[in-house]
Amino acid sequence: MATWHVPTEVHGDGRFVLSRKEFVPAYMKAFEAGRLKEKVEEALSHLGPSCRTCPRLCKGVDRRSDQSGVCRVGRYARVSSAFPHLGEEDVLRGWRGSGTIFFSECNLRCLFCQNFEISQMGGGEVVDPKRLARLMLRLQETGCHNINFVTPEHVVPQIVEALPHAIEMGLRLPLVYNTSSYDSLESLRVMEGLVDIYMPDFKLWDRERSRRFLLAPDYPEVARSALAEMHRQVGVLRVEEEGVALRGVVVRHLVMPGMLDDTRAILGWLSSLSPDTYVNLMDQYRPAWKARTELRFAEINRRVSREEMATASRMAREAGLWHQDTRLAGGLPIPPPAGVAG
Ligand code: SF4
Questions:
Q1: How do residues 22-46 score in pLDDT, each as one tens digit?
Q2: CATH match for 25-45+75-318 among 3.90.550.10, 3.40.720.10, 3.90.1570.10, 3.20.20.70
Q3: How many angstroms does the Cα of residue 41 sit away from the middle of ligand 1?
Q4: pLDDT tens digits along 179-217
Q5: Which atom of ligand 1 has the smallest separation from the CA of 153?
Q6: What is the SS3 string spanning the chain?
Q7: pTM of the predicted model, to two decimals?
Q8: Atom 1 (ligand 1): residue with closest C-alpha?
């Protein structure tokens, strides 16, 4: 059977490799040092009397009493699905998948959302802390390489509240915080020392476009502060010997039709954060939700062209960003490395 050779773009000639054997997830260190209890209390205090879990700062919304604001989620998180995801970045999916937990709803309103059924249309199972912990354990038992919280911005307190239960049940996988980057610094500081891998999607640079397409004019400033904070906490991406992520930041950028000026600005800024920033330039934009049905958004009712993607890749190279997602297996399952059980 063919094996996956970890590419230089991932391990950086060994500079970005950590020992899997010696790796201890951040939350285990917090737990052993007795810091987890105060983290839970602090996180829950963000739910009310006015929720300040995310930058929307919904005034008068007390989620402790199950009220909800822009995100439409009350006291407990709702989960749309939880499964081993084999379509994530190679460094996350490895050969056994990334243990994704998709939270329902979102604090952004991207009118082109590629997952709008999950983020905007309601639904999902209400999960209390123990149920959420059990979902994590089930993914660990399936063999996933990590637990990947998708769209966690509005449910940070609920995730933190579930962690002591998950630890008690035996969770030992690294946590991935997979976010739109519309995160509050307060929430990220609660997550400090709990999350090992941050995966922010940096969408737009321009305020007017952010107002129009995300319904969040302050998105660019918020995203820059959030990314800088994530980078401060965990640094550039490091992988284990077999190329699976253990710690650091993986940045996604979905290239949008006709918006290469945003792409250029974002890539330049990421390079100033560190030229070693690990980046996945994504080409899978397709018109969805209102971008597909409403005439006023006609300019984004098309796919990104090959030329635009080629220009975006050139921009990344010109910005000096070399540490990039490689998709060596062309999206097919990665075979386990030689000598490693599948
Ligand atoms: S998490 Fe929800 S309720 Fe809280 S501030 Fe954000 S959008 Fe508002």
A1: 999 999 999 999 999 999 999 999 9
A2: 3.20.20.70
A3: 18
A4: 999 999 999 999 999 999 999 999 999 999 999 999 999
A5: 1
A6: CCCCCCCHHHHCCCCCECCCCCCCCHHHHHHHCCCHHHHHHHHHHCCCCCCCCCCCCCCCCCHHHCCCCCCCCCCCEEEEEEEEECCCCHHHHCCCCEEEEEECCCCCCCCCCCCHHHHCCCCCEEECHHHHHHHHHHHHHHCCCCEEEECCHHHHHHHHHHHHHHHHHCCCCCEEEEECCCCCHHHHHHHCCCCCEEEEECCCCCHHHHHHHHCCCCHHHHHHHHHHHHHHHHCECEECCCCCEEEEEEEEEECCCCCHHHHHHHHHHHHHHCCCCEEEEECCCCCCCHHHHCHHHHHHCCCCCHHHHHHHHHHHHHCCCCCECCCCCCCCCCCCCCCCCC
A7: 0.94
A8: 154
